[in-house]
Write a structure and sequence with these properties.
Elements lengths: L1 H26 L9 E7 L2 E2 L12 E2 L2 E8 L6 E3 L6 E4 L3 E5 L5 E4 L4 E3 L5 E3 L5 E6 L2 E4 L7 E2 L6 E7 L7 E9 L5 E10 L6 E8 L2 E11 L2 E2 L5 E6 L7 E6 L4 E2 L10 E5 L5 E8 L4 E6 L4 E6 L2 E3 L6 E5 L2 E4 L6 E3 L8 E4 L1 E3 L5 H37 L1
Parallel strand pairs: 14-21, 14-22
Antiparallel strand pairs: 1-4, 2-3, 5-32, 6-31, 7-8, 7-11, 7-27, 8-29, 9-10, 11-12, 13-24, 14-23, 15-16, 16-17, 17-18, 18-19, 20-21, 24-25, 25-26, 27-30, 28-29
Helix pairs in contact: 1-2
């Protein structure tokens, strides 16, 4: 009879542990990156029947044993946010984090931000988010990346038609950027070369002063190879000389359109200095920086980790996992091998299924009640037995 109470008590303890797991899952229903768990039960060792018999038949169990919990690594739903530095992994892989003591942790919680030192950290724990750079793990920093230096114009390309019957043509507002990032508005004057059909002198003008010139030629309305560009050097007042190539080789024609020409600047490859306006990550986990001058620069690539066996994983709190049994995790980058793609502006939510938790809750409750009833019944039987002995 006493054995029955002890066995029922193991059930009470087991269902209590199971209820604790359900409570933890339910409490973390809205925790980003949380992975739900389930309690693992096993029957305890067996002994011979109290009524005799062999060990093979008539054995009695000694209750239930709680082995621990098993994590569910199924991907949670991805939820959109308004923060470009909120990241989610669509597929396998965990973000790699490093705490102040140098310990490496892994997480599905991709709520990140740059701290005051310009280092990417977890908004939840403050740990550094790591990148894979040349095979080594390193932090992601904006040091020397908050500004984008100016680039002097080296090539100006043109498009349109230069009328073959025009006596002259002028293109105004030809922008040139110098090495200091300053913008200069120049002009081009086209003049037919006397005695040389379909050949033009091209003069680059700074106001009324010519700062360089050359010739271009056409045949059948198309630019002649070797005579389809002009190289000049422009030196702004008080500035550094800028070597320029005026390129007429593509999308430029010279047909008779009367006195009207459509020739214009298509592009120039210089730009002024810019300041950082946006940080985000692309699908490969590469940091993409956008500047006020319209330029984008790619920086380091996020390091992702993936375990080989669930036996190598343990929860360490704060939505993070650590290495168990000393088995190293696989390290790589997004969109390669088995690693998933990075989704910017999204976070992975908890994978807890509330309907399943409620179902398990009912089972745990009924089991606990049944074991309680066993204890009560055994106690009543013992009371009766004691009463008989006294009688």
């Amino acid at each position: 009879m006493i054995d029955s109470i002890s066995i029922a008590q193991t059930g009470l303890q087991g269902f209590q542990d199971g209820l604790r797991t359900i409570a933890n899952n339910t409490a973390n229903l809205n925790t980003p990156g949380f992975k739900g768990a389930s309690t693992q039960f096993a029957d305890m060792f067996y002994g011979g029947s109290s009524s005799g018999g062999s060990w093979r038949f008539g054995q009695c169990g000694y209750g239930v044993n709680t082995l621990g919990t098993s994590l569910n690594f199924k991907q949670g739903q991805l939820q959109s946010t308004d923060n470009a530095l909120d990241l989610a992994i669509d597929g396998k892989g965990f973000f790699t984090l490093r705490d102040s003591s140098g310990n490496i942790h892994y997480s599905k919680d991709g709520q990140f931000k740059f701290n005051s030192d310009g280092v990417l950290i977890s908004s939840t724990t403050g740990e550094e988010v790591l990148a894979l750079d040349g095979g080594a793990l390193t932090n992601i920093s904006l040091t020397n990346l908050r500004t984008n230096p100016a680039k002097a114009t080296s090539t100006i390309t043109f498009t349109g038609n230069l009328s073959s019957s025009a006596t002259t043509n002028t293109i105004s507002n030809v922008t040139v950027i110098d090495s200091a990032g300053s913008s200069h508005s120049l002009s081009l004057v086209f003049t037919p070369v006397s005695g040389s059909s379909n050949t033009w002198t091209v003069a680059l003008m700074d106001g009324t002063t010519s700062v360089g010139s050359g010739t271009i030629a056409f045949s059948g309305g198309q630019p002649v190879s070797g005579s389809n560009s002009v190289a000049v050097t422009y030196t702004p007042t008080g500035g550094t000389a800028v070597a320029l190539t005026l390129d007429f080789s593509s999308n430029v024609t010279s047909y008779d359109s009367g006195s009207s020409s459509s020739l214009a600047v298509a592009s120039q490859n210089g730009y002024s200095a810019g300041t950082l306006t946006k940080e985000t990550f692309d699908g490969t986990g590469t940091l993409v920086l956008t500047y006020s001058n319209g330029q984008t620069v790619k920086s380091k690539q996020l390091a992702l980790g993936q375990f080989r066996s669930e036996e190598d994983v343990e929860s360490v709190g704060n939505n993070e996992f650590g290495v168990k049994n000393g088995h190293a995790w696989q390290v790589g980058v997004a969109s390669t091998g088995e690693f998933g793609a990075i989704q910017s502006g999204e976070v992975e939510m908890s994978n807890v299924d509330l309907s399943k938790e409620f179902s398990s809750l009912v089972i745990m409750q009924r089991g606990y009640q049944a074991c309680s009833q066993v204890v009560s019944t055994a106690s009543e039987m013992l009371t009766s037995l004691y009463g008989m002995s006294k009688g």
